[in-house]
């Protein structure tokens, strides 16, 4: 491969890279390969690269990644090749399931998590993170000819014709919407093997903080890419440690998965839609 698996993750997501350091070695190695496959396949679609992903795809199939999930992820990424916009939130959630919820399902397979309820929450974590990506990168994506914010939120108006204050309000609403999926993901952490649980919690809170920083520092949104600082990461690490400990207390409240979160995902693998 032209880039090492470690470098692919480090170059493309310092948030995931930092959290991945806390994973058990054997789990981390396979997750690096899953991430590298997803990233390189996505780069081929978005950047017209020609990286060969067959060897990686064969590898993740051989370690037990569900073929249906791989195909859904590829179909989501391939849809960017001739991208025509998002009509509504239902379409955005389906897209987010494919390109990111499926990654959550793949990680379940790497960790040998078979519980179907656990997979509902893993899908929600992927969706939440994808919504954060979209909110953070609205201006970059627009310059690349893509707008992922649904037409029913922009009322079909071109992004460049929306006042900065109004666009920031739309983005803020989407960040608040994503929090529903983040909190569902937290409820699902009880299914994650104990050796990997803190790493997933840390990654979740780091990523969620990107959106919250946009809410807090919206005046900077149009000047620079909003992210988490080193101080942010340290504070989130400490808060996540406390939260991790609280999860083991007898009175820690466990919520059932909210079926409503998957209403837009009818017919897709592993979604919560039982009668």
How would you describe this structure in keywords?
single chain; 275 residues; mainly alpha; 12 helices; 64% helix; 0% strand; globular
Topology (SSEs and partners):
Elements: H1 5-12, H2 14-20, H3 25-46, H4 54-62, H5 67-78, H6 89-110, H7 116-136, H8 138-143, H9 151-154, H10 164-187, H11 194-216, H12 230-246
Helix pairs in contact: 1-2, 1-3, 2-11, 3-4, 3-5, 3-6, 5-6, 6-7, 7-10, 7-11, 10-11, 11-12
Plain-language structure description:
It is a single chain. The protein is mostly helical and 275 residues long. Helices cover 64% and strands 0% of the residues. Helix 6 crosses helix 7, helix 7 packs parallel to helix 11 and helix 10 packs antiparallel against helix 11. The longest helix has 24 residues. The radius of gyration is 18 Å and the shape is globular.
- N- to C-terminal separation? 45 Å
Q: What is the tally of beta strands?
A: 0
Fraction of residues in helix = 55-70%
Radius of gyration: 18 Å
Helical stretch tally: 12
Provide the residue-averaged pLDDT: 92
Which parts are unreliable, with pLDDT below 50 for 5 consecutive residues or more? none
**Secondary-structure content class:** mainly alpha
Main β sheet profile: none
The topology string of helices and strands comes to HHHHHHHHHHHH
The percentage of residues in β strands lies in under 5%
């Amino acid at each position: 491969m032209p880039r090492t698996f470690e470098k692919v993750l480090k170059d493309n997501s310092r948030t995931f890279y930092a959290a991945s350091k806390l994973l058990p070695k054997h789990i981390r190695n396979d997750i690096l390969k899953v991430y590298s496959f997803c990233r390189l396949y996505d780069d081929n679609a978005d950047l017209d690269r020609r990286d060969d992903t067959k060897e990686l795809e064969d590898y993740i199939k051989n370690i037990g990644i569900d073929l249906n999930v791989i195909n859904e992820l590829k179909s989501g990424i391939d849809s960017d090749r001739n991208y025509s916009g998002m009509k509504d939130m239902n379409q955005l959630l389906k897209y987010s399931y494919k390109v990111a919820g499926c990654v959550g399902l793949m990680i379940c397979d790497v960790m040998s998590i078979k519980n179907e309820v656990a997979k509902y929450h893993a899908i929600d974590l992927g969706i939440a993170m994808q919504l954060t990506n979209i909110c953070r990168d609205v201006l970059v994506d627009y310059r690349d000819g893509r707008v992922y914010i649904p037409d029913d939120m922009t009322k079909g108006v071109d992004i460049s014709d929306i006042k900065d204050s109004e666009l920031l309000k739309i983005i803020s609403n989407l960040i608040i919407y994503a929090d529903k999926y983040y909190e569902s993901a937290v409820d699902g952490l009880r299914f994650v093997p104990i050796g990997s649980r803190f790493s997933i919690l840390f990654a979740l809170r780091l990523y969620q903080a990107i959106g919250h920083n946009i809410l807090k520092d919206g005046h900077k949104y149009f000047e620079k890419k909003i992210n988490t600082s080193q101080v942010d990461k340290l504070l989130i690490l400490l808060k996540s440690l406390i939260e991790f400990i609280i999860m083991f207390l007898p009175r820690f409240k466990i919520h059932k998965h909210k079926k409503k979160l998957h209403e837009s995902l009818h017919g897709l693998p592993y979604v919560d839609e039982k009668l």
